[in-house]
Amino acid sequence: MRDIISCFSENAVNVSQQASCSSYSSSTNACINPSLTTTPSTRNSVSSVYKSTLSNNKHQILMITVTWCKSFSNQGLTITFGTQDPPSPPFRLNTNSRFFRKKKGSKLMVESSDHHHESRIEVFWDLSNAKYDTGPEPVDGYYVAVLVGSEIALIIGDIAEESVTKKLKPMAATSAKFSLLSRREHCSGNTLYTTKAQFCENGTWHDIMIRCSGGNGNEGSSKYSLSSSSSLLSPPALMVCIDKKTVIRVKRLQWNFRGNQTIFVDGLLVDLLWDVHNWFFNPSSAAAAGYAVFMFRTRSGLDSRLWLQEKTCLKDNKEKDALEFSFLIYACKTA
Q: PANTHER family given for it (predicted)?
């Protein structure tokens, strides 16, 4: 009997290394034409959900959601803490706020304890030298840390290690084990999206490009026609590239507005799902045509079913961990 990987490989696209491609073609490995001048859509917010296992509190699991947002008038950070009863207040940092005009500091969120657990939560941050790309999330020169009791529950940023040594180490005796469960991006603009994703812990960061074209003959256009009878209009199509290698090509998108396909990334099985129904069938007459959703979800090679199908059992925790990561893109197409 063949192993599950070889069975999937017959119908799945493998992305194991970067492919060099300089122009669009009709082949499976086609990628975007560098001569196109379309500017990718803007990321308005990025949310990451982390699971932190606290060793100082009988391995209590704390869910932490970190959200970066950006608009024309301000830019901010929100951190929420789940699995708390009663729920802990969220941490909010608005760069235009008087209270948080300093981009470096700390804030005690809650301080109480009982016989069952300690719920002192403190947030430390340093965004004074943070550098940003096109989105709301800093790319380097920053750190954000969450302390629960005397334990570091979460720390992110490229200067995190230095900060732990100099500032947080005296206050934190131990560091919890934390992992990224999901990432969600909200975008708006045209129908060209570029981002990066890491599908496993300590894995390689991959460039992702999602492009929808056709309908009126323009690349990345935000206006589509449901009619495919005219020779002047090419039917809308969807292309997804990872590291300049095409992993999905969907023709006649107005009829194939929902679907899924399995791909391989770094040896992992990844289900790629899309839903662009509202782009074509939104009853609203407003310029905004609703959200499309694109999802990447990893799963174990031992599981032959799609992640959205009911799973009656999981053999062990390792398999459960392998199934947990998901990356969602909510794309709003505007005029």
A: DUF868 FAMILY PROTEIN, EXPRESSED PROTEIN
Q: What angle do CA 192, 134, 294 make, to 5 degrees?
A: 40
The one-letter amino acid code at 36 reads: L
**What secondary structure letter does DSSP report for 169?**
T
Question: What percent of the chain shows pLDDT beyond 90?
Answer: 29
Measured over the CA atoms of residue 92, residue 97, residue 103 and residue 104, the dihedral's sign is: negative
Q: Three-class SS of residue 191?
A: coil
40, two tokens: 């990718």
How far, in Å, CA of 90 to CA of 242, rounded? 35
> Where are any strands of DSSP class E within 134-281?
138-140, 143-148, 151-156, 174-175, 177-189, 192-198, 205-213, 237-242, 245-250, 258-265, 268-275
Count the residues in the chain: 335
115 φ, ψ to 5°? -70, -20
The pTM for the full model equals 0.78
Q: Is there a contact between 43 and 195 (Cβ–Cβ < 8 Å)?
A: yes
Report the SS3 class of residue 287. coil
SS3 91: strand
pLDDT at position 145 is: 93
Amino acid sitting at position 224: Y
Other CB atoms within a 10 A radius of the CB of residue 307 amount to: 19
Check residue 8 and give its pLDDT: 45
Check pLDDT > 90 for residue 323.
Answer: no
Q: Which residues contact 200 (CB under 8 A, 6 or more apart)?
A: 266, 268, 298, 325
Distances (CA, A) of 32 to 58, 113, 192, 238: 51, 56, 10, 12
